[in-house]
Design a protein that fits this description.
about 425 residues; alpha/beta; Rossmann fold; 3 domains; 8-stranded mixed β-sheet; 6-stranded mixed β-sheet; 12 helices; 20 strands; about 30% helix
């Protein structure tokens, strides 16, 4: 058991001693004596304060002292200790597609994961898993769907895991096993990192790189002058061994079968209605964020408004405009951005960059690793963090303090009932 505010318990013990001292000072009737005259008889009832030779009302005394001690114990913020050694570790393991060698990354994580520690797997999201999960993860490929690991959700999950295992420990080490590629840090990462009260052990592993040159995307359309055709001609040759098929009509069964092959990307991009659309904006976030503002029609997605997978592009109000869903060994993308059939929108550099995001490999392109010399802010200074501030966050998840206060209130109620009965 760890007391996060032990001073409160000391104050409670002192208060219980005061209750004991006041209980020993009792008021009683003075002994009767024969008076020579009635003029010395007091008008009110005569009582005298004296120190009791033998304590009386021991039940009331016990109830009062125990209630005071329980209140003090509740304010001392007790949390049960977690099993483990004095120095424990939280390992954040990158399982995204940016890993060149997942086996090496898992071996590094297994080496640094101590008894009583915590394991957090992260790609674009983070989740804490049992330490035994390292033994059952496949060694042939990474388990994440994201192209890179995001540091912000990983650090948040690591902080929560550290608060859980810090109870009863002396210090907690935070270890990140990741290639740390471009775009892994966002605007909130620095602030989240600053909240960690210690240094971070950063273990860099090799990042996967797309060395092959992808073939040009294939456009399947019934229009002779489809507005996507000139934009596809302006696209730079994408990196990665993947094939892209853009279908402007409803995809058929052969398209779905084709998309299940490894490295195949099926993009369903319906034609817009001929009506004039109102000006709108779409934005693709990430390493190369791009925003397109133009007369665009909002087409319904095949998911019916739900988000079945990764969101690639959003409208200006935050609703999804393009999504990606894993399909076999490949993926299928649904684009709900209706383009005008005339005009120079698809020739603008911003639209070409947006189109490049929609024809990337499944999960997104693999970004390059950040130079190690620029990651000093992530490592920080010092080593392990002191466990006491971390364990303080675990008190909110512990109901022991509330139960102690409830028990103290129950004892005070019993004390009042006993006192009222004796007075009656």
């Amino acid at each position: 058991m760890t007391l996060l505010a032990p001073l409160a318990l000391g104050i409670g013990i002192a208060a219980a001693a005061v209750v004991l001292g006041l209980h020993l000072l009792t008021t009683r009737r003075p002994p009767p004596a024969v008076l020579p005259t009635a003029r010395f008889v007091p008008v009110s009832e005569a009582r005298a304060v004296a120190r009791a030779q033998r304590p009386t009302d021991l039940l009331l005394l016990a109830l009062r002292m125990l209630a005071v001690l329980l209140i003090a114990a509740a304010f001392a913020r007790p949390v049960p200790d977690a099993p483990g050694p004095q120095v424990r570790s939280v390992v954040l393991l990158d399982v995204s597609r940016s890993l060149a060698d997942p086996v090496t990354a898992r071996a590094a994580a297994r080496e640094r994961l101590t008894v009583g520690g915590a394991l957090v797997l992260f790609d674009t999201a983070a989740r804490e898993v049992a330490a035994e999960s390292l033994a059952v993860l496949g060694d042939d490929a990474s388990t994440g769907r994201g192209a890179q690991g995001a540091l912000s959700p990983a650090l948040l999950a690591g902080r929560r895991a550290a608060a859980r295992i810090a109870r009863g420990a002396d210090s907690v080490r935070l270890v990140i096993v990741s290639p740390v590629t471009e775009g892994a840090a966002d605007a909130a990462t620095a602030g989240i990192r600053a909240a960690w009260p210690g240094g971070i052990d950063l273990v860099r592993v090799d990042a996967a790189a797309d060395t092959a040159t992808a073939p040009a995307p294939r456009l399947v359309t019934a229009l002779a002058d489809d507005p996507l055709a000139p934009a596809l001609a302006l696209l730079p040759r994408a990196r990665g061994a993947h094939a892209v098929r853009i279908v402007r009509d409803q995809p058929g069964a052969p398209d779905s079968v084709w998309a299940r092959e490894p490295g195949h990307v099926l993009v369903h991009w319906p034609l817009a209605d001929p009506m004039v659309a109102a000006p709108d904006a779409v934005r693709a976030s990430g390493t190369d964020a791009v925003t397109v503002v133009a007369p665009l029609a909002r087409l319904p997605l095949a998911s019916g408004g739900r988000v079945p997978g990764r969101v690639l592009v959003r409208w200006r109000d935050g609703s999804p405009a393009a999504t990606e869903l894993p399909l076999g060994a490949g993926c299928a993308r649904d684009v709900g951005i209706g383009l005008p059939l005339a005009g120079d929108l698809t020739l603008r550099p911003a639209f070409v960059r947006l189109l490049a995001r929609l024809v990337e490999p499944c999960g997104g392109r693999r970004p390059a690793a950040i130079p190690d010399s620029t990651l000093g802010w992530l490592r920080g200074e010092g080593s392990a963090a002191w466990a006491a501030p971390l364990a303080a966050a675990a008190f909110a998840d512990s109901s022991l303090g509330a139960w102690l206060l409830a028990a103290a209130l129950a004892l005070l109620l019993v004390e009042w009932l006993v006192r009222a009965r004796r007075s009656a």
